[in-house]
Write a structure and sequence with these properties.
The complex is a heterodimer of chains A (280) and B (256). Chain A is mainly alpha-helical and 280 residues long. Chain A has one domain. Helix content of chain A is 67%, strand content 0%. The longest helix of chain A has 30 residues. With 256 residues, chain B is an all-alpha fold. Chain B has one domain. Helix content of chain B is 80%, strand content 0%. The longest helix of chain B is centred in the last third of the chain and has 33 residues. The two termini of chain B are 23 Å apart. Classes of the chains: A mainly alpha (280), B mainly alpha (256). At the A-B interface, helix 2, helix 8 and helix 9 of A face helix 2, helix 3, helix 7 and helix 8 of B.
């Protein structure tokens, strides 16, 4: 992705109160503070509209483009559907979630460059509150581009998901966006700059694509099959895919949520460690 | 004219090579798509109507090349619009430098970068087992075509940058690079594309440029696609360069 030249706008913030007299940072998540950070995340859409483009437009272009180009692939036995659009729709949903989460990391890189995170860390707010605010804003923001993407796909011929399918989509996509935001925050805290943006977007995109994104496991090249089997995102994609291709199965569903849980646990730990290291 | 053009070309190359965040989209992103397409869709060579090639990796190399070259053209446009925003453009204009050297320098840099980009993907292809149907001569043809295609896409980037008032406008065209790619035969044979890409791709110059790059790699030294690719690349260079020069004049008149 090209560097986000719009993201250098100054961000005003009220002066942060100092830490309590004990000098210790609270440990628990403060819901009120999280809400304020989530609201700030939404303000980014108005303040830096260009940063929302990848999350909103790119998945639509990928979905329509891939279907036009590789649509005939479903003539090969093994896809389980004759609609390539339905097959790649989960990939577009995760791309939307991933790019939205990635934008959170890019914005954090800008906040670090401008000293905003330093001021936030001086406030009597736990690190987990700061992290929760960041990642939950990504989870909430992804609900903006997803409905138009789903409606457009259905208009173009994707099957309408069942109620359970809709619930799975509405759970999996925001959680994946939050996980992508956590990973993006890990990278932003490591590189402390917006210049980590290409690395953030490329790593998130790779995690989605090196999976069963374009073809079922049996049709992948052996090296790609090995990577896809080891990649937890494969299970997330299959969890979403069952909402459009085949029938919803409990096994596929819990595997998707287990993969999300594992990824979340690892990245949240890394992000909290990153925040602690940043403070030092 | 030549000396300042070369100086500006060297400056543009130095700046590009100095900033890895500019190089990542040119090399890493197309490499990711090359790997994913090859690993995920190799089975599509079994589809009836898929042309006989030396392999799906060889077939996809041209797609990675045009993708990289188009992103490079966009980067050239972003770089010029940033120079306009930062005031560097005004300083160049007030210096005793021929105006055309501003365009020529960028296009010379694009030619060198374009040759380097296609060479990179050729090497990647050979390392991962692609069989170059055209051999060494074919590889040389691809490098020459790649350099020219780099100039063509950079000229388009410049034409847009001179007219755009902000770098963010040029940057916002990033998704449309993929739209143009998907409406061509860069990724898949034209006969197997779905509507409306099957029709539009026949009129999309990118299809001919991609096929020109693909032929020496995947099919052999078949003269027709190579000459069609060359002719289309030269046509785009001429039209886009004229638009870029017109854009430069418009920018100068607007600033005066």
């Amino acid at each position: 992705m090209p560097p986000d030249t719009q993201s250098s706008m100054p961000v005003s913030a009220p002066p942060a109160p100092a830490l309590p007299k004990s000098g210790r940072r609270p440990r628990f998540v403060d819901p009120a503070a999280v809400l304020v950070l989530v609201r700030r995340g939404f303000n980014e859409i108005l303040r830096v509209p260009g940063a929302s483009i990848p999350g909103a437009i790119a998945p639509i272009i990928f979905l329509v483009g891939l279907t036009m180009v590789f649509g005939q692939a479903t003539d090969i036995p093994g896809y389980g559907t004759d609609s390539f659009l339905a097959f790649v729709l989960p990939v577009a949903l995760l791309q939307s979630a991933g790019f939205t989460g990635g934008a959170t990391g890019v914005n954090l890189g800008r906040d670090i460059e401008q000293g905003w995170l330093d001021r936030l860390l001086l406030s009597p707010t736990s690190r987990s509150t700061i992290l929760a605010g960041l990642v939950l804003s990504a989870a909430a923001r992804v609900l903006i581009p997803v409905p138009p993407l789903l409606v457009m796909a259905i208009v173009l011929g994707a099957p309408m998901p069942s109620l359970v399918g809709v619930l799975i989509i509405l759970a999996v996509v925001p959680i994946f966006s939050a996980i992508a935001a956590t990973w993006a925050s890990v990278l932003a805290l490591k590189f402390r700059s917006q210049q980590a943006s290409p690395l953030i977007q490329a790593s998130i995109l790779s995690s989605i694509l090196f999976s069963t994104s374009y073809a079922p496991l049996e049709l992948l090249e052996p090296w790609m099959r090995t990577i896809a089997e080891l990649n937890p995102v494969t299970y997330v994609i299959e969890g979403l895919r069952q909402c459009f291709v085949g029938e919803i199965s409990w096994t596929v569903t819990w595997q998707a949520f287990a993969a999300l849980g594992g990824l979340g646990a690892v990245f949240v730990t890394l992000a909290l460690l990153g925040l602690r290291r940043f403070e030092r | 004219m030549i000396t300042p053009s070369v100086a500006l070309a060297l400056r543009a190359l130095r700046l590009t090579l100095r900033r890895p965040q500019f190089l990542i989209p040119l090399f890493l992103m197309p490499s990711i798509f090359l790997a994913v397409n090859t690993g995920g869709l190799s089975a599509t060579t079994r589809l009836p109507g898929f042309p006989e090639t030396t392999g799906f990796l060889a077939f996809q190399l041209a797609a990675a090349m045009v993708q990289s070259l188009m992103l490079s053209g966009l980067q050239a446009g972003i770089a010029v619009s940033l120079e306009i925003e930062s005031g560097f453009f005004d300083r160049i204009v007030t210096a005793p430098v021929p105006r055309l050297a501003i365009v020529a320098g960028r296009l010379m840099a694009a030619a060198v970068l374009g040759a380097g980009q296609v060479l990179f993907f050729l090497i990647v292809g050979v390392i991962f087992g692609a069989d170059l149907a055209g051999g060494v001569v074919g590889a040389l043809v691809v490098v020459v075509l790649g350099a020219l295609a780099g100039v063509a896409f950079a000229a388009i980037g410049l034409a847009i940058a001179f007219r755009a008032r902000q770098a963010s406008i040029v940057q916002g065209l990033f998704p449309f690079v993929f739209a143009v790619l998907y409406l061509s035969s860069a990724f898949f044979p034209q006969e197997l594309l779905g509507p409306p890409a099957d029709t539009i791709s026949a009129f999309n110059p990118l299809s001919y440029i991609a096929e020109g790059l693909r032929a020496p790699i995947a099919y052999g030294m078949d003269a027709l696609p190579i000459l069609e690719g060359l002719a289309m690349t030269v046509a785009v260079i001429v039209v886009a360069s004229l638009l870029a020069v017109a854009g430069l004049r418009w920018r100068l008149a607007d600033a005066a």
